[in-house]
Amino acid sequence: MGLVHHGSYVNYFEEARIAWISNLGFSYSEMEKTGIILPVSMLNVSYLKPAYFDDNLVVNVELAEMPTSRLIFNYTIKKNNDEVVVTGKTVLAFLNKETKRPVRCPDYILEKVTPLFS
């Protein structure tokens, strides 16, 4: 059909989120080694306009609020840098790797994100 497959946008969200976390100066794999996992607990995607095979897509990701026991991200995907084609939201829960029970956001993450809300 020449259209970007609807499922691809979820992968774009994940890639943008991983890059965002990395740009803060920590890695997901290092967090797992400390016993914390961060699974997606909610995903919302709104398909506003089609994107086509040759479109240049830009994914913007932002943290919606200060983390508690979860991280909430908002996404905007634009084609050709100006036309919004998809918006989305994910909620990720901080869980203890062994018990799978919720835990509070680690202090080292709070230190990095606090300036974003000042």
Give the key terms.
about 120 residues; alpha+beta; Thiol Ester Dehydrase, Chain A; four-stranded antiparallel β-sheet; about 35% strand
Question: Describe it for me?
Answer:
By secondary structure, this protein is of the alpha+beta class. It has a single domain (8-117), classed as Thiol Ester Dehydrase, Chain A. Helix content is 25%, strand content 34%. The protein has three helices and six strands, in the order ααββββββα. The protein has helices spanning 8-24, 28-33, 107-113; strands at residues 36-37, 40-47, 57-63, 70-79, 83-93, 95-96. The strands form two sheets. The chain has a four-stranded antiparallel β-sheet, covered by helices on one side. A hairpin with a 3-residue loop joins strand 4 (70-79) and strand 5. The mean pLDDT is 94.
The backbone outline, from C-alpha atoms, is elongated
Largest sheet: 4 strands, antiparallel
Q: How many helices in DSSP terms?
A: 3
Mean pLDDT: 94
- Number of domain modules: 1
Q: Give the termini distance in whole angstroms.
A: 46 Å
Low-confidence stretches: none
The first-level CATH class is given as Alpha Beta
Helix-strand topology string: HHEEEEEEH
Q: Which CATH architecture is right?
A: Roll
Write out the CATH superfamily name: Hotdog Thioesterase
Strand fraction equals: 25-35%
What is the structural class? alpha+beta
Global Rg:
16 Å
What is the share of helical residues?
25-40%
**CATH topology category name:** Thiol Ester Dehydrase, Chain A
Q: Main sheet: which strands, in order across?
A: 2-5-4-3
